[in-house]
Amino acid sequence: MTTFGLVVNPVAGVGGAAGLKGSDGRGVQSFARRRGGHERASERAQIALSVIASTYPGATVLTAAGVMGEEAVRGAGLEPVVVYRPGRETSGEDSTAAANAIVAQGVGLLLFAGGDGTARDVSAAMLDESLVLGIPAGVKMYSSCFAVSPAAAGAAVVQWLKGSTSTLEAEVLDVDETQVRSGRVDPRLYALVSIPHGGGRTQARKSAAPDTERMAVRNAAVGVVERMDPQGNYLLGPGGTMAKVAELLGVACTPLGVDVVRDGRVVLEDASERELIELLQSDRETSGHAIVSVIGGQGFLLGRGNQQLSAEVVKLLGSPPLIAVATEQKLIELRGRPLLVDTGDLNVDARLSGFVEVVTGPRASSFYPVKAPELEGKL
Amino acid sequence: MTPSFVHPYIPNSSPDAKSAMLAATGAESVDDFFVDVPDALRLRKVLELPSALVTEQELAEHVEGILSRNRPVRAGSSFLGAGTYRHYVPAVVDEIINRSEFLTAYAGEPYEDHGRFQALFEFQSLMAELLAMDVVTVPTYDGYQAAATALSMAGRATGRRRVVVVSDILPDKLSRVTDFVRLNLDLVMVPTANGTADCDAAAALIDEHTAAVWIETPSCTGALETQVAQLAGQTHAFGGLLVVGVDPVGLGVLAPPAQFGADIVCGDIQSLGLRAWFGGAHGGFIAVHDDPRLVMELPNRLFGLATTDVEGEYGFGDVAYERTSFAVREEGKEWVGTAAALWGIAAAVHLTLMGPQGMAELGETLLSRTAYAMRVLSAIDGCAISDSAVHLREFVLDVKDSGVTTAHIIDQLRRSGIEPGVAISDTQLLVCVTELNSQRDIDHLASEIAAAVGKDKA
Amino acid sequence: MTLPVAPKPALRRFHQARWDEPIVFELSAGGERGVLVSRSEPGILEVVGDVVAALPEGLRRTARLALPELGQMRALKHFLRLSQETLGADLNVDVGQGTCTMKYSPKINDALIRTNALTALHPLQAEDGVQGALEIIWRTERMLAEISGMDRVSLQCSGGSAAIWTNIAMIRAYHAAAGEDVVRDEVITTIFSHPSNAAAAKAAGYRVITIYPDADGYPDIDAYRAALSPRTAALMITNPEDTGIYNGRIAEFVQLAHDVGALAAYDQANANGILGITRARDAGFDVCHFNLHKTFSTPHACGGPGGGANAVSERLAPFLPGPVVEREGDRYYLDADRPQSIGKVAPFYGPIPNIVRAYAWIMALGAEGLREAAEIAVLNNNYLMKLILDIPGASAPYAQGRRRIEQVRYSWQELYEETGLSSEEIGVRASDFGLHYWTSHHPFVVPQPFTLEPTESYSKAELDEYAGVLAAIAQEARENPEVVRSAPHNQTVHRIHHDDFDDPKRWATSWRAYRRKYFSEAAGG
Question: What integer pLDDT is reported at residue B323 of this predicted model?
């Protein structure tokens, strides 16, 4: 049956046009409107839905009432089934509640329009096996669960409706906007979600590389495991690739936190910065290494979403302090831009700058440039 | 540099096209496009090559002139094999593989090249019947590569290194395989007994470290292995895999190795519709059972049937598309590239023309002519057959009691326009008989060899 | 309607052949024969008796051989129909498969090889009866040595990837001879080099380090320096890379490899843009390879047979595959006495049909003609780039505003963001106009990629037609996206469902597997 879900955050994007760094919170939204900001999530949702409607004019969309989806669905000429009604003024809780109501109907894919805040709210719902996909409409876009454009989001839904089952793990990152507005960027990793991915009508040939990004993630994780020495403490950073590493090691891990693994066992679970420092100080005999993946679209290895791996922690690590891991595709998508570190300590940043060997698979790696934006600013 | 001719292969070498296109690109001259090639790397001379033969007629005369120095031996008078075999190729095979569509298509895309996918799916399917195995890949380069890959697959699937080689392997094939697998596998050779596997000696070497036991049937001396089932039992008892190299040409009458427990079967398709081509037209095949454990290890393309949006339409595509990524050990991963697809189509046409009856008759003809040749040649004084195995197409004639060397025999027979076989030592001649060698040809060979060893037939 | 006939519309109203042809097994009619086989004479049977009945147990086939039974004309018709349902390069403007150099494969070369003097030649015949074949090999090797600037050439490989394997196998043997094979366990390549370089190096036992492009699209030379070490065995690199951008610092890359004792291998599978312009040796390379089925015009044949030529400098010559062809006076002979050779990489002496074709192609052009081929291939490419970049939604990432050599990796990313239609969907739609479309492999080094390589073979009018079709599809994507999304419309078959390919319980890898799984038919054995 051609059914999917939709949640629109009606105020997403309002802050951007007003020159603000986000649109979270009612105070900010009314301030933004006074500065000339306007909501764009509904129009962008409608673009995505129009793409779907051109292939599936009879598709059913489970959604929330009014501006939270119903209007966009009707605007695209599709039939809404309203399963949630927000109050007069919507909030982040409404996004979560709407997502819960839609998923409860057994919908396999939930489309949402918004930004990082919306992604965070939607991913707070009980998604179970459901896929999500973001229609980019927000101001903050650190998360990797968004399609590149509204039309691309619509096209991905079409592929999924046609039966494509290929998926990818994606990160939901969000910044505390009050901090961004005051100059500090401190995004946290809130969730890992599954997004639909690929599923074309032809298959590429002559490829020696893995044929899909999902297999590439697995290969990269195999490459990491291959390099682990039983005599080391490995600080596994957050993210989907690390989850794959943990799976290969046969240990349970904290997807959004830092775990320490030694000789195939978890010795510290969901560790805080303090706990990491204590462990590394108490066990000076054992060489410590942080295994980090590229988080978000900007190419950060440290300082975004894994703040537990602080400058103080890095100082206590052995050589090399970082084992970076990424798929070839992820490195390509940096389009020649360097990887970034921002530990808050310029000396540590300087030590990590230069080139890092990035593990991309078993016996496969790359030497890739690393820069510290903070350091650049100071020189 | 503007050449003195507008070349028929290069339409835009005409001055009009060239200037119009340069104008469109805003370039002064073609040289502008090479600005990124540093001066130091620019070739400042004209390549020292023979003058161009720009007319087709000059070119044909020149190439035909060189090729006329080739003097192929008359089919019936050639008893050469050793990896490349002369079999009859029906005219329909040539008609099909010389079609522009098949000959010049790229590797093929679903939709625009549907016919190419279907032809290769049919190749897989026809081979699957012959081999009694459900999964056969599209052709790899040749039988050498097929063996190297099959053994590597066994190494990956078992996580082991040792390969116990129980048959006589063609030395060139062994050279290729050894170099290819040296990183992951160790080959242990078990000398054959009476032409085929020495099961007792092999048993002593097969253990829990054995990735594979490698049989070739026919072996490089044409001997057919009768102990496949026993070797399969010995191999499987320790969790190893049985890899069997086979020439499919005999399978119209011979039992497919899968019937006796082969896990991976590989070989060359040259005998199925390809001419000798100076040894330059080969294609390899690899077959496994429909078991994901081994299917996932196949590095080659493998096509499968699919439905389409229209009922009753067959679609095709690559089966287990991610399989190379599932390889247990990364180091075994191979590549996929341009290999031998057209030769696969030739084999498909050939097998279709032959049908079950044709393959059975061909197998019978090969067996009986081989047996006859063995009989008449061993009747020559001082000549003997080196073993008592059943042979298909090839056998070793031992001439050590004849008082002459194989080089002498070959030299003498070449004077009569006969290639009597391949000298594998001073006293051993590898003789190959196919359906192209009639009884008269074989009798003639026997009388000439008898003359060469200075004795008449007893 | 009466004459005159209206002019042809701008877009070709193509439809691929559609014979709705059954699988060959479905055509079987019991008892029909496609060809008869030579049977042993009564004289033989008298002597040997019934050999099949006499086979020992375990040798004789007992189960029915379930091959189809077709009369000759029906078999012919079936495969002719399948050929018609295939779009050969001879039939289309085959510029869509960039990197693969789909140039014209001259018909005279096909005619020249179809001679008994080649097809019936056995590789182990007396040397004096195979002088023509040996001479063609010898001459072709010498010409490719001159074209690459290298000292020796081997034509034994039957494909490009096999030639890449041979490059790394020779390098491995070279380091082994110097006692350095254990310490030198790394190979460096670039992400824009053909993936077979990384795959072959891995298969040969190496760790592979891949260098990414800098923001301008050139391999990051500083990252490369950081990666080089005494562990480096080889640099394996393509130039120009798949972007069509020539790396002007290539000699420096090679020198840096040599500085740490490593060798440098040049993937010149496609050398079509630089024939007679610049040579591997001039940049310092130790080894390179050419694909005969790209640069040297031999047909792609649905995926082979192709041909690979390995060209090496003097120091790698001892490691070439053997035997090699030598000449003494007027005579050509095979030299197998080469103790350091890596041995055989294929049966006998190489894919002779393609070696003769490549020889004839070079002879038809000569030095001037080769250079003209390169220059026109590059002119065609830059002309086509102009036409493509005029299409809204198409772009050529990296090296903005610079010229390209023989191909360009373009991107439909802008069109994708606007319409949600992927490069793949645009490509499949292009097939509706009788054009070969592109496929791209993961990872996508540019987003929504398509790589066009016009070679020297296509006329200006054909390039205009190709660009015109893409422009029309880009317009369709905006105005009538569903017609693109639901393509193909004019092909032999319609949209193929992929659902059954990846499930071991459902995939059907052969007719017998299909019958067994879906119709519970017991297979023959």
Answer: 59
A and B: number of Cβ contacts within 8 A: 41
CB C278 within 8 A of CB B41: yes
- The CA-atom distances, in angstroms, between C374 and each of B1, B15, C283 are 12, 16, 18
Q: What is the Cα–Cα distance from C381 to C389, expressed in whole angstroms?
A: 12
* Among A19-28, C76-85, C419-428, the least confident range: A19-28
CB contact under 8 A, A222 and B330: yes
Smallest CA-to-CA distance from B196 within B440, B3, B388 is with B388
CA angle B420, B424, B426 (to 5 degrees): 90
Q: What angle do CA C154, C198, A295 make, to 5 degrees?
A: 165
Of A203, A219, A363, the CB nearest to B331: A363
Whole-number pLDDT of residue B2: 57
Note which residues in 183-222 of chain A have CB less than 8 A from chain C.
199-213, 216
Contact B321 A361 (CB under 8 A): no
Query: What is d(CA B141, CA B184) in angstroms, rounded to the nearest whole number?
Result: 21
CB contact under 8 Å between C482 and A55, yes or no, is yes
**Can you tell me the distance from the alpha carbon of C133 to that of C118, in angstroms, rounded to the nearest whole number?**
8
Check whether the bond before C443 is cis (ω within 30° of 0).
Answer: yes
Looking at beta carbons, which residues of chain B come within 8 Å of A205?
107, 301, 318, 336
The answer to whether the Cβ–Cβ distance between C417 and A148 falls below 8 Å is yes
The closest alpha carbon to A9, from A108, A135, A105, A128, belongs to A135
Residue among B70, B111, B339 whose CB faces C431 most closely: B111
pTM of the model: 0.93
pLDDT above 60 (res B413): yes
ipTM for the whole complex: 0.97
Cα C462 from Cα A208, distance rounded (Å): 33
User: In the numeric block, which tokens belong to residue B242?
Assistant: 């049985």
Residue to test with chain C: of A366, A368, A370, most C Cβ within 10 A: A366
For residue A351, what are its two tokens? Answer: 């030590």
**Residue A101: which region, alpha, beta or left (left: phi > 0; alpha: psi -120 to 50)?**
alpha
Residue A177 confidence (pLDDT): 62
pLDDT at B142 over 70: yes
